[in-house]
Amino acid sequence: MNLMLIPLVVLAGMGLSLEAGLIGPLGTEVGHLWATLSIFGVGAVLTGLLVLFFSPRNAPSFTGQPGWKLLGGVLGPVYVVVLTLSTPVIGIGMTMIAILSGQVAKSVLIDHYGWFGTPHKKVGGERLLALLFIIAALVLIAWD
């Protein structure tokens, strides 16, 4: 396992909390769909520039990929709309722990079965205990 990636992923997670803190109030002011469009518009421009300048020139054709691999493009906006709707109502902490519990629960299943071509990582007691702790955190934060 490349341990150097873990701090980067933790920072990205912190960025999601920051995004929730920004997009929730924006959605309240301008509308949830407009706020979502703003996030994806800016993201599309920045990603387009990265692709233009840093993408390998001999990469496989994007249009030649199976449709199921493009499902993430549908899930991203759904995630941001939910983030925009929920953050002003239940708060950033509750939104993030709820998202985390859903992410970890689904990730454990994906790893266990090796879906989408990922390597198999069997669910053991440690992973289940970690998931239970995250669910306990969700309950404790909701209790407040």
Provide a concise account of the structure shown.
By secondary structure, this protein is mostly helical.
Could you describe the largest sheet, including whether it forms a barrel? none
Number of domains: 1
Shape type:
globular
Beta content comes to under 5%
Q: Could you list the spans in which at least 5 consecutive residues all have pLDDT below 50? A: none
Task: Please count the helical segments.
Answer: 5
Rounded average pLDDT: 89
Following the backbone from N to C, one meets helices and strands in this order, namely HHHHH
What is the topological layout?
Blueprint: H1 5-30, H2 32-54, H3 72-90, H4 92-113, H5 125-143
Helix pairs in contact: 1-2, 1-3, 1-4, 2-3, 3-4, 4-5
Describe the overall structure:
With 144 residues, the chain is mainly alpha-helical. The chain has one domain (16-56, 73-142). The protein is 76% helix and 0% strand. The chain has 5 helices and no strands. It has helices at residues 5-30, 32-54, 72-90, 92-113, 125-143. α4 (92-113) runs antiparallel to α5. The radius of gyration is 18 Å and the shape is globular. The termini are far apart. The mean pLDDT is 89.
